[in-house]
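User: My advisor, Dr. K., asked me to get a structural model of this assembly before our group meeting. I'm new to this, so sorry if the format is off. These are the inputs:
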Amino acid sequence: MSIATEWFKHKKWKPFAFQKATWKAITEGKSGLLNSPTGSGKTFAIWFGVLESYYRQFGKKKKPKDSGLHCLWITPLRALSKEILLSTQQVSKDLELNYKIALRTGDTSSAERAKQRKKSPHALITTPESIHVLLASKEYDKFFAGLEFIIVDEWHELMGSKRGVQVELAISRLKALNPDLKIWAISATIGNLEEAKHILLGNKSENSVTIKTALEKKIIIETLYPDIVQKYSWVGHLGIQLLPKIIPIIEASNTTLVFVNVRSQAEIWYQRLLDEAPHLAGLVALHHGSLADTTRKWVEDNLHNGRLKAVICTSSLDLGVDFHSVDSVIQIGSPKGIARFMQRAGRSGHHPGAVSKIYFVPTNSLEIIEGSAIRYAIQENLLESRIPYVRSFDVLVQYMVTLAVSDGFRAESLFEEVKNTHCFKSITWEEFTWCLDFITTGGNSLKAYDEYHKVVLMDGLYKVTSRTIAQRHRLGIGTIVSDSMMHVKFMGGKKIGLVEENFIARLKPGDVFWFGGKNLELKLVRDMEVRVKLSNKKSGKVPAWLGGRLPLSYQLSSSIRKQLDDYKTGNIHYEELKQLAPLLELQNKVSHLPDKNELLIEQIKTREGYHLFVYPFEGRFVHEGMGSLLAYRIGLLEPFTFSIAMNDYGFELLSDKKIDVDLITDNNLFSSEYMHDDVLRSMNSIELANRKFRDIATIAGLIFTGYPGHQKKTRHLQASSQLFFKVFEDHEKNNLLLRQSYAEILDFQLEITRMQAAFDRISKQKIVFTYPEKPTPFSFPILVDTLREKFSNESLQTRIDKILNSVQK
Amino acid sequence: MKKPYEEIKLRGESFFLLPQRAMYRPSRKQLIISDIHLGKAAHFRKQGIAFPAQSHLKDIDKLNFLLAAWQPHSVLILGDLFHSSYNKEWLWFKSLLMEYEPVQFILIEGNHDILDQTLYSLPNLLKVKVLEEDHFIFSHHPLAKSDKLNICGHVHPGLQLFGTAKQSIRLPCFYLGKVHFILPAFGNLTGLHILEREDNADYYLIVEDKVVKL
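Assistant: The format is fine. Below is the predicted structure of the whole assembly, which you can bring to the meeting.
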């Protein structure tokens, strides 16, 4: 009898077909991908395959033999690793197996680590970062010598980030150590599932399998409408007016997860919910990425126990273990993507056959359209793809030093291994040599004066010889770069969480702000710590965390365009569109409502200047790129200075001079010809690249973020990424890291392929110009947006003169 | 044509503000600069952090240019001449000093100037804590109290300006308040500290190759 059948019998459960298929494939020695949502029994599907393989080799009844590490299980989240540890350990316990499982994350104590090194467990549940830390320790090849399996859990999550590149690189090394390694990915459904498999498995894709669970969960969507759509706000992303409508839902449900898009919004919703429904005090909690680990853990534990009625959360609860008591989910504001919306919906209703119920709360009236767009997209099975990072030289440079810290590497063999990953399949020997130079001589050096010291080449082996450099490198392993944050603590030292430095800089001692669901009075700021005490004073100040402004996905934005066209042509299928009719009619009356063959451009004059609004409905990133491109091209014809604002539906060029519309139509300004070059030339790309460069510089080890626990930063080793960027621009134009920052903004920030498609579409559309007297339902939300990019081709002197003039007036 | 510098009066005496982030004092034929942070690139490189090695050549070139153009009798450096502990970039400065032997260099000690004392003992280099002269007191840090005008560095002052159409721009500047006159950082590898605008202060912005009073 197989181990799996024995255990299922023991549990009186019946395995699913997909579980059996997975065991079979694994025991046949195949690699593959398991496509399965959370909570479907995917862990066991893989796990019994691993156990079965092990015991076929080593026999079950024998004394526990020191067979070394057999399986590596990689997850993106520490919370998930814990869950997997518990369920796999339970199997060993139930069946009295000698197969030992342990956890290895950033939290693992050094004593525990030492123990693991001395006598390795059979399986390690770990994170991408921790594997690289293992690769940075001496004689790691012995530690991994007996490895048979690598399981990468939630691969779809990792793949779209540089952590995915870390996984690819680690696997390339482990494959070289163990050519028979079997690799399995576990992934939720995404648009490019097969590609995801190929990226992880590489040359193991041949003969591999893809197994899908047939379990389709039914999702019921309900949009909450304002009583009178015409009176609902045209702008905003908060949606607090609809708060009274969600209280009955929370009351009627067992447990509700309320998802918002950004952390500050979570804080505000939590505060207002308690104001509005004081009887829920103690039954509602707050969960977001800036809160202290202990706070988040407390919330998660109480979700498990079913002790909470509702949790206001951000994407911090998108992933992770299932909470069985959750039976309804509320999404406040645009979900930005279809997969994300479905994932959140899937957090409710966990028992087999259960239905996932999700409420959509639009935060401004136009956003109602996203309700019908989501319905349409789900019906048509439109799902986003995850775009993998390629040519991430920052991660490669870090990885090279990692190997140099442990046992050293040889250039030719490492080149072959790296070239076999998806990320670096196009790397040339010249580029590889550049990376070698970067770590050994620090790039272009001045021979006589130079004292660069990092990696040294000895007898063909690249090694780190300095202990300080090795120690500093180990601390810097990883690709998650956090913003400059300050710890918020009570006077007694208890941690509350992290807020951005900029926010604290604007407060004085005695000021009160709202954070972590509490009113806090600022007492003092010391080094990177903020000490606070509880306060009774009310305050409206809520920290704003940067980031979190995701763009609307390609699939969701095209669904929105479809909805608009459907409305225009009288093809109304969903309730949301009917509700929205008064607003769309108003837009049509004061300006125009475009169908799928039209691009709408509105020109409006206000006290601020001349506004040009363009509505491609392509998501804010593409709009940002399009805006600066258009500004650049107009600038080629006439000197202009613009500021650019955008949202997910359109963008605005604001200038102090009038833009002649003939300028746009006569000069074919929306042409996709030379788009690539024009985007890079627009000043915006330099500013964006400069910002991107911060992450790249940190990952590549240019910026040292300090030793943990040491508040004092390393003396005289602080330099901002902007400074590096500027100096590289001046002295080292061919620096691969600098070039990478431009490539990354094209791929991820400006979504260049998506932009190309948008330009192609627009080139076939008719441009409709209108000149409304007042802001329209489409333009108003963009008009009031305060985050702006700027573009200018006027000389610096002219700009200064203009600014000085307006300042002095 | 406009002069490539801005002439101002401090306590009745004439000074030229140069767009190279430096100041010239005609009465004493003196060049005044602050916060070069020489040796920063090499300091980082020694620790395995790859600033381009020639980053500071710009600073040396700029200093060379100013020495040739203004032919000063002396150069007053208001601190943070060298970024950290000794590295070979110090030799660049040393050879510059030898080249301009007749010019007296005076360094006011800054918080970064931590080199071994013996290194500073060069024939035409004088190191002091503060310097009081005429109506002025020269220091690195802005002094808390002073009856005379305190000419200093350390701050790396800059301003962020906002215009119509929600534009903004950040520029280095000279700051003139009631008690303090602060120079912008001379070095190429230095950051900007954005000042809060004060009503009673004057700001002289460095706009490419000009100095512009706000």
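One thing worth pointing out at the meeting: Residues 219-379 of chain A form a domain with the Rossmann fold fold (CATH 3.40.50.300).

User: Perfect, thanks a lot.
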